[in-house]
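Sample entry (417 residues):
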Amino acid sequence: MVRSKMKNCMGQENKKMLRDLSSIIFGARMSIQMAKDEIKEICTENENLEVKDHYIGNETASALSDVEMEDDGLDEIYALSVVNKQDNGEDEIYGEHEIQECECQEETNFSQYFQHCDKDHNKYISIDEFSLEHLPKALSDSIFYDYIKFIADLTVRVDVKMTSPRRPEVWQRTKNVKYPSYDLRGKTNLRTGTGIVSLIYRFTNGIRNSGGRYEKKHTKCWCRKCQHSEIPSSMWWEFDVDTASHVVFDETEADNTSVLLFYDRKESQNVIVDTVTFKYSEVCNYNDRCYLQCVTCDESLGKKLDTVWKQFHRKFSTTALTNYINSTRVLENFMFIVSHPHGSPKMISIGQWKDKIHKTSGQFQFTYTASTCRGSSGACVVCLGYTGLLSHLTHRGTRTNLRLNHSGTGHFLKYKV
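Predicted structure, serialized as C-alpha cells:
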C-alpha cells in the first residue's frame, strides 16, 4: 500500500514537472518568434535591409547544440540573417577557385596536374622536411613548431565524386561572378580539396564516452560497412571535418564524399573514411564554410585520431598558450596553410597576410602570399593573432594577376595579451 502511494505521488510530481517544462519551452518559443517578428518589422521599415531564413533542419540543430532533440512534431528549424540589399557582394574577393577537378571518377596520377600547373611549387614544404629553420627567427620555437605539426596531422584531403545539380550559377550576392563547378552539375568527375578535423568523439552502444550525449538514432556503428553487416560494431568514432562550401556544397555531394587522412607522403597507407554526412554550411553573409560529419569503427584509426586530437587540445587549448601563439608577434603578419595541392601528399606553406578586409561585424577576409594550388580549396588558413585553437578561415582561391591568394570570410576576435 505504501509503495503504491509513493509510486502514485512520484507519478504526479513527474507530470507536474513535465507540464512546467512544457510551459517554459512554449514561452521560449513564443519569445523567439516575437524577436523574429520584430527583426522582420525593422527590416520592412528600412528599405535597404532584407531578412533571410536559412533552413538547417532538426538533425543539424541538434548537432549544433550538442543536445539530442525530442520528436515534438517540428521537422525544421530556421536561422535568420539580416543583409544589406545595397551591398551586392561585388567587392568580395572571389578570384579563381582552387578545387582540383579531375577528368574521371578515379584518379591515380595526380602528378600530371603538378606538371601542367604554372604556379611556383618550390616554396612548398613537405611534412618530413619541415623544421624550425623554416620559421622566422622571432617564431622559431618548439611550441609554435608543434602547433603547425598538429594542424598538419589534422589536415585531410576531401574527395568529392558527385557535383550537385543544385549548385548556383553565380556566387551569392553577385550578379556575374561564376560559382565553382557549376558546369559540372550532375556529373561524377572526381574533385579534390582540403579540410581539417575539428572535433572527435568515441561512442559505445550509442553513449558518448566523454559524457553529455546519447545517440538515439544509432546504438551501433553506422558506417557503410556496418550498415550492411549482421553484426555492426558497438564502438565507433564520429569526427567533424571543416572545409569550404564550394568544395562540398550540399547533402548530395557529402553523400558522395570521402576523406583521406594522414596522407603525409606518397608511401603513406591510404586511410580513407567513406561515410560522410552533411551537417550544415555557411554560404550567406560572405561565408564559404561547410561542416561535415564522418564515422568509422576502424579501431586503429579511431584511436590514432582521438590521440592526436586530445594531445592537440590538451597542449594548446589553455588561454595562456593560445594567447602566446596569438601574441604581439602578429606584427610579423605571419600565416601558414597546410593543404593537399593537386591531390598530393600534404604540404606546408608559409607566408604573410597582406590585406585584412572587413566585411560585417567580426567578419574578415584575408589575402596572403603562402603558396597554394588546385586542391588547396577548403584548407585551414592560420593568420597569427586572428585565430583561436582552430582558425575560422578557409582557403577560397587565388588572383594570379596580383600573385595573392585569399580566404573566405571568417568570424573571429583579435587576441589581446
